[in-house]
Amino acid sequence: MQARERPYGIFDDHADIGSPKRVGLTLGILLLIVFSMTGLVMAEERKAIESIEKLAAPVTFTAIHSEKLKFDKPVWLTPVPGLTDASVILEHRTGKAWLLHGIGDSARKTLFADWGEGVTDGPWEGLMCLAFHPDFSNNRRFFIKHESLIEGQRHTVIVEKRAAEDLRTDSGELSKQLLAIKQPADNHNGGTLAFGPDGYLYVAMGDGGPQEDPKGYTQSGQSFLGKMLRLDVDDVAEGRAYGIPKDNPFVDRDPDKWHHEIWALGFREPWRFSFDAKTGDVWLGDVGQVRYEEIALVKRGENHGWNVREGWTGFKDTYQREGEVYVEPLLSYTRHLGASVTGGYVYRGERNPT
């Protein structure tokens, strides 16, 4: 049965966003590195990583379940709060969510939910991510991100659902659609939604494709595409399925020109991000166009440059704005070292030092 949803706003980000202001961009060896903490602008030669030294002791991978428990294109795994023995695993293209109970040869799986009928199936679209509310063990609320067809048009949707009382299956109750964002193509949808240490829900959106962000959605405040969004799912505003935090960086701008949900911008395909458990920093992997992959530390109100910049170099100046500050990636590497960056987590333990 197709999941039932209580719809709210459907956002068409493909309206006219205005003619780009063309400003000359001088390319050269020297790139501007902006230190936002001091306001100091320095010229420094930076280059993408061309080679990576191999570790003396290579990283090893250990299966956490037996061969018989295979999953169909698993794309997300996370522990279930309130359960000591279970993690949820999402299958990208089937739209199914499974509970993996235990680890090792004794591990078993049970079906948590099947949302396949409402999830569009494609190489770059499908069921993307699931985020449990910080108080999930009490309120049973969780949120999923996936692609869906609405009146024949592809959208990325953010949906709120509720688990059963034992937390081991979806309750089947009426779900609530927070956002439905119109997509211009079938790729670059972004991948992650996650609650930050501040209790707000963060959502990463790609530029929507197809290639090079030809309409400039990423640099436009009128589009959710190419952005990190920050939503309040507990203090809901009238007429919406969520609230907008008062300290979001663009809440003082003209709402006809800037979506107030935007927390940061300038991303191409921010596939996975995570919060540093110690510092709260946002670490993000942004998939490149043809030359570079990027790893970024993302902060409030920052513009990470796409499609004006790629890596530490210029890409094109069509949608460059005069006086705009573009934040460089923490690390950039050429694509022969890896064709698609994923993301990762900060690790401070001593079990696997590097």
Under CATH, the topology can be stated as Neuraminidase
Mean pLDDT: 87
- Based on Cα principal axes, name the global outline: globular
Helical amount: under 10%
- For this structure, the quaternary state is single chain
Provide the number of structural domains: 1
Query: Which percent band covers the strand fraction?
Result: 25-35%
Assigned CATH architecture: 6 Propeller
SS-derived structural category: mainly beta
The end-to-end distance, rounded to whole angstroms, is 48 Å
Report the uncertain regions.
Answer: 18-45
- Major sheet details: 6 strands, mixed
Radius of gyration: 21 Å
Topology as H/E string? EEEEEEEEEHEEEEEEEEEEEEE
Fourth-level CATH superfamily: TolB, C-terminal domain
Number of DSSP helical runs: 1
Look at the structure and give the CATH class: Mainly Beta
Can you characterise this structure?
- By secondary structure, the chain is mainly β.
- The protein has one domain (5-47, 70-337): Neuraminidase.
- It is built from 1 helix and 22 strands.
- Strands 1, 2, 9, 10, 11 and 12 form a 6-stranded mixed β-sheet that branches. Strands 5-6-7-8 form a 4-stranded antiparallel β-sheet, with no helix packed on it. It has a 4-stranded antiparallel β-sheet with strand order 13-14-15-16, with no helix packed on it.
- A hairpin with a 6-residue loop joins β7 and β8.
- The relative contact order is 0.14.
- Residues 18-45 have low confidence and may be disordered.
